[in-house]
Amino acid sequence: MAAGKGPLAGMKVVELAHIMAGPVCGLMLADMGADVVKVEKPEGDDTRRFLPPDINGESAAYLMMNRNKRGIVLDLKSEDGKSALKRLLANADVVIENYRMGTMEKLGLGYDELKTINPGLIYCEISGFGRTGPYATRGGFDLIAQGMSGLMSITGEAPGRPPVKSGAPVSDITAGILGALGCVSAYARKLQTGEGQKVDTSLFEAGITLTYWQSAIAFATGVSPGPLGSAHPLNAPYQAFRTSDGWINLGAANQKNWERMLTVIGAEHLAADERFSSNHGRMTNLSALEAILNEYFAKDSSDAWLERLEKAGVPAGPVLDIREMHEDPQALAREMIVTTSHPVAGEVKAIGLPVKFSETPGGIAKPAPLLGEHSREILAENGFSAEEIERMVSGGAVRAAPDRRAQ
Predict the structure, then answer these.
(1) Residue 321 catalytic?
(2) Bigger pLDDT: 279 or 4?
(3) Which of 66, 111, 302, 380 is at 20 to 30 A from 228, Cα to Cα?
């Protein structure tokens, strides 16, 4: 992606966020063309110390979450650091923060103060539980949110087993995406009215939004559904089945696909079995259905079954590990695996932008910044003289990166 491209080209974002949810919000905006300036504390975002793994000494976690951003280091406990940040925010469209409640206010950087400097500022807060309600002052982490949102009660192999969280930090990532959606929505209004506003979302709410199907069941029945392994709570067969050499996912839930699948595996007689003749019956007798179908699929390899199912028009797919997904031709064709050139780490692979635009394509143009890599550049853009910048660097209010190039 060339500089200035993408549907959000021209949007100026200041990211005062660390670890994951806030940085996800920032990278989504950056990938769609916004100029995102990441403000780090003097010791840097905590993900810089998420080691191992590293690439030539640089944290792989930090490189993933912060590509496409420029970086500046400010000591917000110093007056010079706060003054510099206020000047950045005076010209910004969006600020993203994921500190504990009250932290920004103690620094004199809360929304009520900042909107007097910049009435058009969109102030995005991503927290554990949101800025209102009885849990507003609690800190929040993905694991805690997955448990309290109900996600862990529906994840796992079967009822009665230990609670299991999703392998991916889904509350963190979803909160970041919701934050980005909120920022874009508020930005659309700002373009019409010139007015900014607060955007407030949380890991807890992000987790809750992922329970749509299970909440629908609970609202309708008064009973909380439990874990079903890979199975669907409303349709069957819609889950993973073991083959002779691995696993495949099968989506034969509607009646036509169910009947096509029976023909593929040579089990047409099951169409007349009252236990399985309707979706209601298949869901009621899911354990029996799973056992019978596993016996059929165990007779041949994953590749063989996937080829037959595709020819019959039955939705199915392999269960890939992460490395296999990175090499999948569809992931590559959709530019979901991209490469950046980092000054220290060298060639670094990253996950691409999952939204495509026909007229204003986004993408990834820059690697994650070194600690303080763009400090001088960003301050100069915001009207600071070379003398002022050097005074703040020498005084410790600003940190600027030394020239560290990959050898």
Answers:
(1) no
(2) 279
(3) 302
Biggest CA–CA distance in the chain, Å, is 84
User: Residue 377's closest CA among 45, 13, 70, 8?
Assistant: 70
Give the whole-angstrom CA distance, residue 202 versus residue 399.
31
Catalytic pick among 35, 142, 172, 200: 172
What is the three-state SS of 164-216?
A: CCCCCCHHHHHHHHHHHHHHHHHHHHHHHHCCCEEEEEEHHHHHHHCCHHHHH
For residue 2, the model assigns a pLDDT of 47
| Model confidence pLDDT, tens digit, residues 15-27 | 999 999 999 999 9
Question: Which CATH topology does 238-242+247-318 take?
Answer: formyl-coa transferase, domain 3 (3.30.1540)
pTM over the 0.85 mark: yes
The pLDDT value given to residue 184: 98
Architecture of domain 12-210+328-399: 3-Layer(aba) Sandwich (3.40)
Mean pLDDT of 357-364: 94
Mean pLDDT of the chain: 95
Cα separation, 213 vs 209, in Å, equals 10
Can you tell me whether residue 317 is helix, strand or coil? strand
Residue 10 has pLDDT above 50, yes or no: yes
- Domain ranges, ordered by start, for the chain: 12-210+328-399, 238-242+247-318
CA dist., res. 225 & res. 202, Å (int): 24
Which CA distances in Å does 405 have to 6, 49, 82, 349? 29, 20, 30, 18
**Are 12-210+328-399 and 238-242+247-318 in the same CATH fold?**
no
